[in-house]
Amino acid sequence: MGLMERLHNAMEDVVLQTVDKRMEKGDICDCENCRLDIMSIMLNRLPTHYAVSDAGALYGRVKAIDFQPHVDITIAMTEAIELVQQRPRHNL
Ligand SMILES: [Zn+2]
After folding, report:
1. Rounded to the nearest whole angstrom, what is the distance from the C-alpha of residue 38 to the centroid of ligand 1?
2. Which of 7, 13, 20, 21 is nearest to 46 (CA)?
3. Distance 62 CA to ligand 1 centre (A)
């Protein structure tokens, strides 16, 4: 495993989980493009939170569970959804 592969931005996990949960409501488009656009806007606005994967652990299984973000991810998500809904780039 390369050195950089063991570095993981735990904020990505939190954003993915938060967006997935929001999509369950079913009132906004959850196509791949809209989902990725929302996630990229959020990740560009939110601080990074790097963690080191334990050797031998599955990739990505870092201490994300212990990570309590000090920023309001819901607000970032609401703004990202608004932006994407104004200019959706749906999958064809
Ligand atoms: Zn879409």
Report:
1. 10
2. 13
3. 30
CA of 4 to the centre of ligand 1 (A): 32
pLDDT tens by residue, 23-65: 999 999 999 999 999 999 999 999 998 888 776 555 445 555 5
CA 50 to chain centre: 13
pTM of the model: 0.82
